[in-house]
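Last lecture ended with a question: if I hand you only a sequence, what can you say about the shape of the protein? Today we answer it with a concrete record. The protein is SNTG2 protein. Below, first the input exactly as provided, then the predicted structure, then a couple of comments.
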Amino acid sequence: QTKTGIALLYDEVSENAYDIRLKLTKEVLTIQKQDVVCVSGSDHSANHRTVTLRRQPVGGLGLSIKGGAEHKVPVVISKIFKDQAADQTGMLFIGDAIIQVNGINVENATHEEVVHLLRNAGDEVTITVQYLREAPSFLKLPLGSPGPSSDHSSGASSPLFDSGLHLNGNSTNTAPSSPSSPVANEPKYEKRWLDTLSVPLSMARISRYKAGTDKLRSNAFEVLALDGVSTGILQFYTAQESADWLRAISTNISDLTLQNMKMANKCCSPSDQVIHMGWVNEKLEGTDSSQLYKFKFLALKGSSFYIFSTPPVSTLDWVRAEKIYNLCEVLFKIHKLWLADDYWLQANLYLGIHQDFDLEDQRLYCFSVMVGHGKSHYFSVELGSELAVWEKSFQRAIFLEVQRTGSKTYMCSWQGDTLCFTVDFALGFTCFDSKTKNVLWRFKFSQLKGSSDDGKTRVKLLFQNLDTKQIETKELEFQDLTAVLHCIHSFIAAKVASVDPVFIDSQSIARKYMYSN
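The predicted structure:
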């Protein structure tokens, strides 16, 4: 998507916001700020312009001013009236900060002091100006070119006083003077949007939350490049504008991620392909600091689920993952924080989630990946569409790995005997003696009618005998029971998907949510 539009850049230190223009292309988000540039003639000073105004009988200096030291901003030109003195010079612009009046420095002057100087400066007033590139949005300066027709400011009227009529009144000398006009060899200036920062979108990430917290910014977000360069906080005038920009930028990042995946997959064997990858926020468990979340980069590749602190750029980078888990032994769960509490509890009971996750979490789109030894990782993403993609990608990656692997065997024990327990995609469950290899029992997936465990090492599996229709209970002990239970879940889900893919799709929580919205 390509897109341009006006937004605000919020400065958290000064708590001011500045008008900017955003330009989005397929690969880059560019921030532009307005500045005055010399378009012809000899530009003696790129930053400062000195202009002589001749006060006219009607309209005076032909400009209005706002701001002042009492507001912690310089005095700036807030209006330029068409065909009057200031406009005729061609060298003054809305947003120009007044540096000097007739040689007197006014950078730290109050509004009234500058008004007094301009009113009493005589018929010929020489002012030195510099364009204020970061004019706080509370000044409500128009963004267009000079003239009342384009006087569309970035919001409602400013709380600051706009000195216009009394400033442009006649001085004591009412004799008409010749109009201010540009001299032939004087440099000519124009106000233009200039690129100030370009953020590459490849492997970039977006955050709508205040750094590390679950506090959602109002109609605002930040885009961070792979190298850590940030756009700063981009603010929008409406929730709709914010959502549109968020979606457009996210789409372009996703498209570039897809390209990176295709490039990476050219160097990988068919059994080691990248299924999906992208940025998420991981919730930090047991932390006392305000840093509740940290950016992590997740990847589903071949037989593994990877967690990185920074994205893998080269082939060698894949070995430096913070965590690597076998896909057969993880369990993906969506946290339905947007649904009614009773439905949340029902789902928890049905899915057997025992973890006491913080239900007060303000982040809307969350999922957890449960791993071995009862541990889990809790993640959040920015958009519901991202959540749906992760849900689908985990399903696909796990199903592919189950079909590729075919079977998984785990060492276990019961009543002092060392046994082997195999989960096989074609055969189901088999238990055999680890020494003699004699098969002790075998059941199909369809014969498993229930299970219970002690949450530590021991599990009871309830199978129905096909001949007697009686339930047979098999008890086993595993070193990492969670990994085995996740593996059983993965194999059964893959088996169901191979027989009835429509059923698996119908169980998608994230996509149901998206369609209902």
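Comments.
1. The first strand starts at residue 3 and ends at 11.
2. The chain has eight helices and 27 strands.
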